[in-house]
Amino acid sequence: MDLFRYMQFCSHFLLIMITFLKDVHTTRKTCSGFRRNPAFDNLALNTSTFKIQVWNERHSPMCIQRCFKHGADCAGVLVNEHLQLCWFLKCFLTERFLQRGLLTVSSGWKYYLEENKCRPDWVPYNGHCYLYEDSVRDTWFGAKTRCNEFGGYLVEIEDKDENTWLISTFPVDEQDPVHDGHGKAVLIGASSEVETGPYTWSHSGQPVVYQAWYPMEPSSHPSEYCVIFRADGLWNNLPCQIQRQFVCESD
């Protein structure tokens, strides 16, 4: 091998090694932000609602690294090294997922979540953070102010997946009963100037496109300008002065 070709070979080899070491360093750095939760070992999601993407990947560190590089909407991964599958998740797995039949026993799966994805008591979903305020009840306007003080806003539900995630994650169905005729429910960010709409989101000012009204809702009862999210995921309009627990969202 002449000197020129030898130098080319050495340069190419050195470049490969530098790239490899950078990848190792990045993988270690990104993996340090993730934590394995063995409580969800050998469990697989049986719905695609909360999955972002599926990769053919056998090694957990590389699956985690892909999630980290994917962006803010990847909150964790399910990895099965035997099946060589890596699932990106929009959200954290919770015990309520088990209770609601969203997880199925399936050997080989391991769950990793990204710590510090949101502030304490807030939980991630699809790149946003959410707070279920169950320690206090307030009016719609009071809840809106509280969410602003927390650095967020009353939740704005954009699609069916987000609506499903909310009932799958927050224990609205476990609230103490409120005897106001509206059942167990939380305030959300939709409101209107008239009882029957149109409704808009208070933070973005955008019209409410996705809607999940309870049958015969929104009703035309006087002064029912604000909206609640029921334990079954359906919506009602109600007077804004009624006090309820609420969900905040932040970008």
From TrEMBL:
Superkingdom of origin: Eukaryota
InterPro entries referenced in this protein's UniProt entry, alphabetically: C-type_lectin-like, C-type_lectin-like/link_sf, C-type_lectin/snaclec_domain, C-type_lectin_CS, CTDL_fold
Domain C-type lectin intervals: 125-249
Gene3D superfamilies: Mannose-Binding Protein A, subunit A
Keywords, alphabetical: Disulfide bond, Signal
SMART domains cross-referenced by the UniProt entry: CLECT
Coiled coil segments of this chain: none
Residues in the signal sequence: 1-26
Pfam families: Lectin_C
PANTHER family: MANNOSE, PHOSPHOLIPASE, LECTIN RECEPTOR RELATED (PTHR22803)
Protein name: Secretory phospholipase A2 receptor-like
Source organism of this protein record: Crassostrea virginica (Eastern oyster)
